[in-house]
Specification:
With 323 residues, this protein is mainly alpha-helical. It is 77% helix and 0% strand. The chain has helices spanning 5-16, 22-34, 41-65, 72-94, 104-116, 118-131, 137-155, 159-179, 185-204, 211-227, 236-257, 260-281, 288-311, 317-320.
Length: 323
C-alpha cells in the first residue's frame, strides 16, 4: 500500500527537519509498499456469504419450479452439486494458504461458505430419504446438516460456523428426540440442556473457538432446554427448576472461570425462573402486571449482583504486575 500525498509530505518534512535520514524514509516507503491492501476485505467477505446464500436459495427455487418434472435422483444431484460448488468456492477463498491456515476476511469467508454446505446437503438427504418413503427423513436431514456443520467447524472455525453449528445442534436434537424417541417437551428439554453442557465443556477445552461465542451457544441451548417443559404436559416445576439449575451452573462456572458469558447466562436464568416460580406457586393468581413488575425487580437485582461480582473479580497476574 503506497503512501498517499499527505503521508509523503509528512515524511519529507521529517527528513528536512533531520528527524529521519533519507535511508530511514526509504525504509518506511518500502514497508508501506509491501503492506497488503485490506480496505476491501470486508466486501469480499460479505460477497462470499451472500453468494453462498444465493446459491442455496437458487437451488431451492429451481427445485420448486421444476419439482414435479424432476426425479428424485435429479433433485439429489442438483443439491449435492450446489454443496460441491460451495466447498470449491471455500477452497478458492482460502487460497494457497489452505482452509486451516488462512486468516482475516478470506478465512472467515471460506469458513462461512464451508458452513453453508450443510444446507444443501441436508436438503439432499431429505429428498433422498423421501424417495424411500422413510418416515424419519426429517431426522436424517437434521443429522446430516449437523454433521456437515461440525466438519466445517473442525476444518476452519469462525463466528459464522459456530452459530451455524449451534442452530443445527438445536434443530437436530429437537427433531431427533421427537421423531425417533417420541419424547415430549420434558425429554426434548433435557436433551437440549445436555447439548448445551457439551457445548460449554468443548468451549472451555478450546475445541470450539472463539470461546465466548461457543459458551453463548451452549448457554442458549441450556436455557431454551430449561424452558421447553413449560410448553408440554409435565409439571411446571420442571421448567423453572431446570432453568434455575442452569442459572446456578452458569454462576458456579463464572466463579471458577470468570467467563462473562456465564454470568450473563446466570442473570437470564434467574430472571426467567423466579417469576415463573411465583406464578406457579400462586396458581396464576397474580395479574400480568404484577408478574412483569416481579420480573423487572429480579432482573435489576440479578444485574446488580452481576456488577458486584465483576467489580470484585481478581486481577490477573499479568495485568497487575508492573513492567
Amino acid at each position: 500500500m503506497p503512501l498517499g500525498k499527505e503521508e509523503e509530505a509528512a515524511l519529507q518534512r521529517l527528513v528536512t527537519e533531520g528527524q529521519l535520514t533519507v535511508e530511514q524514509a526509504g525504509a518506511v516507503r518500502h514497508a508501506f509498499a509491501a503492506a497488503p491492501v485490506k480496505q476491501f476485505g470486508w466486501l469480499a467477505e460479505a460477497g462470499g456469504y451472500a453468494g453462498g446464500a444465493l446459491m442455496a436459495v437458487g437451488a431451492l427455487l429451481l427445485l420448486g419450479t421444476a419439482w414435479d418434472d424432476l426425479g428424485h435422483l435429479a433433485k439429489v444431484a442438483i443439491l449435492v452439486g450446489v454443496a460441491a460448488v460451495m466447498a470449491v468456492a471455500a477452497v478458492a477463498f482460502a487460497g494457497a494458504a489452505g482452509l486451516r491456515a488462512t486468516t482475516g476476511a478470506r478465512g472467515r469467508a471460506a469458513s462461512g461458505l464451508l458452513a453453508l454446505v450443510s444446507v444443501p446437503l441436508a436438503a439432499a438427504v431429505l429428498v433422498a430419504a423421501d424417495s424411500q418413503v422413510d418416515v424419519h427423513q426429517p431426522t436424517y436431514a437434521m443429522l446430516a446438516g449437523l454433521g456437515a456443520s461440525i466438519v466445517a467447524l473442525l476444518v476452519r472455525s469462525s463466528p459464522f460456523s459456530v452459530v451455524c453449528a449451534g442452530l443445527w445442534s438445536a434443530a437436530a436434537v429437537s427433531v431427533t428426540m421427537v421423531d425417533l424417541a417420541g419424547a415430549e417437551a420434558l425429554g426434548t428439554g433435557l436433551a437440549l440442556v445436555a447439548a448445551g453442557a457439551v457445548w460449554i465443556v468443548l468451549s472451555f477445552a478450546s475445541l470450539i473457538t472463539p470461546r465466548p461465542l461457543g459458551l453463548l451457544v451452549g448457554g442458549a441451548l441450556a436455557i431454551v432446554g430449561g424452558q421447553a417443559p413449560l410448553f408440554g404436559s409435565a409439571p411446571n416445576i420442571w421448567g423453572y427448576g431446570l432453568t434455575a439449575a442452569t442459572a446456578a451452573a452458569c454462576f458456579l462456572l463464572y466463579r471458577s472461570t470468570r467467563a462473562t458469558v456465564m454470568l450473563f447466562g446466570a442473570v437470564l436464568g434467574v430472571t426467567l425462573a423466579v417469576p415463573e416460580l411465583v406464578y406457579d406457586v400462586t396458581d396464576g393468581g397474580l395479574s400480568p402486571a404484577v408478574i412483569v413488575l416481579i420480573t423487572g425487580v429480579v432482573l435489576v437485582l440479578a444485574s446488580l449482583l452481576a456488577l458486584r461480582l465483576r467489580s470484585t473479580a481478581p486481577v490477573p497476574e499479568e495485568a497487575g504486575t508492573a513492567p
